[in-house]
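Me: Here is a favour to ask of a fellow structure person. Could you put it straight underneath, so I can go through it closely?

Assistant:
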Amino acid sequence: MKLIDGKLLAEKIKDKIALEIVGFNGPRPGLAIILVGDRPDSVLYVNLKEKQGLTVGIDTHVYRCAEIISQDELLATINFLNNDKMVDAILVQLPLPEHLNADIIVNAINPDKDIDGFTKENMRRLMSDENLPTGRQENIGLMPPVYGVILAMLESIDCELNNKKINLLVNSDIFEDNLEEILKRQGAEIIANTKEADIVITAQGKAKSLTADMVKDDVVIIDIGISHDANNKVVGDVDAESMKNKPGYLSPVPGGVGPMTIAMAFLNTLITFKKQKNLK
């Protein structure tokens, strides 16, 4: 299989963002990242976002909160950032500790600053007819980064979605329902059988669970799943070794969706910045 190089695509996106920010000759986007606790993978992701954000010209500030922070305290922090004119974008690093209600926390973010795009109001805007090419485009919702990654990867290999059969292997109903609606709007058909699918999108977190005998030739596979194999090596849902001689495309893990997701979060940060500062 040919690999879709997420690192290369991410660098191209970040280069464009940096170039546009330089062109503003002064003002820079402000991104606030809230990190609760010290979960190793979350700390790693936040450190990457902080470091890479600064390289593209985004003023990135991390608000590190204790694991035992109360829900009211966290909501107060979000409310403060919602009202801070220096903050154009807010991201809460997930998952959160069990004593915090992630749905309440995420939906407390001002949808105009919600770069993850998962507030109910943002998803309403995204799915609204106003977000179609014929709509008024006044309150356009932000594309959640992971959905944006899928669309960008398919575009990079000239894979149009119209009339394509897509199989979704996803363990989150909300994630699947929203993604399905976005893909259908592009003309795709969602099917249940991996063998008949032109495109398979997997986000199960089950190491090497998708093998070559489960898909047809010339399939495009977007692997969002992340887990560890018996040797504690980071792997995706796809058994990449079994796919080596299979015709088609695969986004690898690592080096596929991960780098792209960060780049798309920065792109959303730039969009929110331009909207709030009335820049074109």
Remarks:
- Residues 25-111 form a domain with the Rossmann fold fold (CATH 3.40.50.10860).
- The CA atoms of residues 67 and 98 lie 10 Å apart.
- The longest strand covers residues 30-36.
